[in-house]
Amino acid sequence: MASITIRNLDESVKAQLRIAAATHGRSMEEEARQILRRTLMTQSNPGQLGSRISRRFVELGGIDLPIPERSEPRPAPGFIDTDE
Q1: Secondary structure of residue 59 in the 3-state scheme
Q2: In a domain, 82, yes or no
Q3: Measured between alpha carbons, how far is 25 from 28 in angstroms, rounded to an integer?
Q4: Is residue 2 part of a domain?
């Protein structure tokens, strides 16, 4: 197992960690491990933007929009040199 040291941690963050650890009945060290695990595991493969949007709104259901008929494309413009 690896260990890390976190320097320059704000006292307010340390106090919040202490409170969260006490609330969950864990040591501060175990609470920090749980927070890191939970945060990194959920963000390890967030997917592309479209996939993330789809997952967020899948419970709302979808709507079917009519697909409009396609028309013939306009003809390409001609480039005729009229100075000659």
Answers
A1: helix
A2: no
A3: 9
A4: no
- Burial class from Cβ neighbours inside 10 Å (0-12, 13-18, 19+) for residue 31 reads buried
Return the DSSP state at 8.
Answer: S
Placement of tokens 């501060």 in the chain: 28
| pLDDT of res. 50 | 84
Say if 79 falls within a structural domain: no
pLDDT at 84: 61
| Full domain range(s) for residue 29 | 11-55
**Nearest of 10, 8, 13, 45 to residue 32 by alpha carbon:** 13
Q: Is the pLDDT of residue 47 over 80?
A: no
Decide: 22 and 32 in contact? Cβ < 8 Å: no
Answer whether 31's CB lies under 8 Å from 16's CB: no
* Contact assessment for residue 35 and residue 27, using Cβ atoms and an 8 Å cutoff: no
Is the pTM higher than 0.90? The answer reads no
Number of domains in the chain: 1
